[in-house]
Design goal:
This protein is mainly α and 107 residues long. It has one domain. It contains four helices and no strands. Helix 1 packs parallel to helix 3. The longest helix is centred in the N-terminal third of the chain and has 35 residues.
Length: 107
């Protein structure tokens, strides 16, 4: 790749365009891993929680435009997803959905 400077330029341009998103996902993973480590859980839980938090952060970042929020909030979202964790965010989402969409009555 050293003989193709154009490839480096393309890679660096891509990285600079998506760096806020990549940074937010990485921050989320690191925060989740540190939180799980602090709690004294297993490595398996630590790796799975980090991966799920990273994916959840990417999902939330994709929805920032929908809510009219700037992409510069990606790091904020990533930090909070990693700090709260998957279970807490799922509980919050369940409460929001139950509030917005009342449960269906049995037929």
């Amino acid at each position: 790749m050293s003989d193709k400077p154009g490839a480096w330029a393309i890679a660096l341009a891509w990285l600079s365009q998506y760096s806020p998103i990549l940074y937010a996902a990485a921050l989320s993973c690191v925060m989740a891993v540190l939180r799980i480590t602090y709690g004294g859980c297993t490595r398996r839980q630590m790796l799975v929680e980090g991966a799920i938090c990273g994916g959840l952060t990417l999902t939330i970042i994709g929805g920032l435009d929908f809510f009219g929020l700037p992409q510069s909030m990606a790091t904020f979202a990533g930090g909070w997803v990693g700090f709260l964790g998957v279970e807490k965010i799922r509980n919050i989402a369940d409460r929001v959905i139950d509030f917005k969409l009342p449960p269906r009555k049995a037929e």
